[in-house]
Amino acid sequence: MKFSTSSRHLSQIQAGWINDKMPDNSTLSEEFSTLPISIPPLPSYPVHATHYVYLRRNAPKIATPNDSRSLYLANVPADSTEAHFRALFANLVGAGRFESITFEQDKKDNKISHEPAQAERLAKHHKKRKREDEELQHRKEEAAAELPDTWTRILHRSGSSAVALLADEKSVNVVLKAVKKLQKSKKYPIWGEGVKGGVPGFGAQWLKAHNKLSYPGNDAVQAIVDAYFTVFNRKEEEAQQLAKRLRNEPDEDGFVMVTRGGRSAPARRDEAEEAKQRMLDKQQKKKDETQDFYRFQLRERRKAEQMELLKKFDEDRRKVQAMKEKRGKFRPEA
Fold first, then answer.
1. What segments bear the compositional bias annotation Basic and acidic residues (predicted)?
2. CA neighbours closer than 13 Å in the CB half-sphere of residue 112
């Protein structure tokens, strides 16, 4: 459906996540394929529109084992969920090929750190191995200390991206071929059709749920606070014990780290001597590696070696001559 200029501007204002006009292909990279999605009209916005998602093979700067079977999606709809894309790919290539999707904002970790200042600083110097059951218990405590979500459904930033993980590399090829066929058939998949899993809706109910989740009650808040300070105090105690052990342990350079509270005893002499020797060896190795870095230094070194050889040759020749003169002329016996 084609819009007039005024209606198109109105659609962009009222529903900023809908692109009703396909951008010029000259502005897009040739690697991307265009996936048109039909957006059905809503009671609050009774206009049919088309949204365009751009996808290509995933090729991040840092390669991962799943790059060959994943797709990079750009300009995903603002109300996207995993259920929406599962239904979308099932409509394109059938069920069983889509596994999961990671949205752009999912990669950002906005969780509050439970690390006390002292524990966070000392953790860089020491890593403590924990038993599996102890580690599991600590994870449960940290999970209980996290603040609950206040939204039943998250809206994505306009024009954000995502990475879809498919079953195998063959599924990626099948999806790309199916997207190319859409340009000829003009039968675009409908956004939200076949979505399963009880995805929360928007509107007034969405805002009411947010208002309710923002005020969980005194008992729930008190339980979160108690769990947070339990984790905080445990890590603070671990940091104090670690600081006490580090008072008498020299580092690789032979120095003892000064921690809060001072040292109770000097470091062992043999350990300090070994660390000092390692430091000297390290400095000598670094000095050797930096020698002859420039070409003129290499020429000077070779010239010095040649002069040293000539000097030794002259010395040896004079020694031989002196020995001959001292011994006199050789006369064989008759």
1. 107-122, 131-141, 267-292
2. 15
